[in-house]
Predict the 3D structure of the following.
Amino acid sequence: MPEFRTIAGMIDYLADEETDRTLSVRLAGVDLSSADVRVLFAVIRMARKYVALDLSACTGLTVWERYTGVENNDAYTPERTGLTVWERYTDAGTGTDRVVSLALPDALTEIAEGADKAATFSSFASLKTLRAKGVVTVGGYAFSGCGALAEVNLPQATSIGDGAFSDCTALAEANIQQVAGIGDCAFSGCTALAEINLSWATCVGSRAFSGCTALAKISLPLITSIGAYAFSDCYKLESLILGAKVPAHFGSEMFYAAGRDTEAGFTIFVPDEEAKKCLNNEIAMSCNSGISFLDGPFDYDSSSKFFGYDSPGKFREVTTLSHG
């Protein structure tokens, strides 16, 4: 992957490459500002190339904002960018729609919340993969409606805001295993999402996964609160694994129509009779018919490395839901 130490250094490379393929470009050792990022995207747009852009080794930004293009000519001063000819970029637009893959700076800790009913990444129409090694907080509606987004890698994220990935219909892989809090509607409508690791999640908001019609398996070993309709219309849901501690709050109809398209409904693995009792009323409201309880012991070792944490207990009870 070609590596450049200035934004200006990318210009000739992008202009000279006569190809329809996506170009991989790495910008390293650059102290970026918001204005610099706008210039960078303008350069990409003028080159009329699709790029896989790696900014992981850049510094200067701790919050990723919504970029809508260059706001004025001051952003193009040679002192800021190193460009000697810059007038031709004054009406360059955003250029964000040419970014196919994006690695955000490792120094970045936050992706800003969407504003004025527009997602932070709303202009990234071609973005398929995103990596943000240092991001801790993903703001509300940050990626909402990003229809091309298929993979996100956020290994240090602990908080996902309301609607952050709502209606990301191509999203099939989300690496967010450190996340503790998931906001309302955070993944609602993610119809390609089949499985997700939430080993450290303690709170799942209302409708967080509603309409995830491909979601088959989910484990919540540390969960304490699940909001209303959290898994509603998850038609292919096969199993939900709860942890050794009984959740303090179950929202109303959180399983509405869950498991509808599976042969035997879906199975909830619970730690004991107390948890089973807590679920009883919720299950009755969530399912139309065919509710059955399997009272025999189920020896499931919850300290399995698969879940990434150690627990003192074993899951002993199984509750199976079906929609006859």
Q: What stands out?
A: The CA atoms of residues 76 and 86 lie 6 Å apart. The longest helix spans residues 34-47.
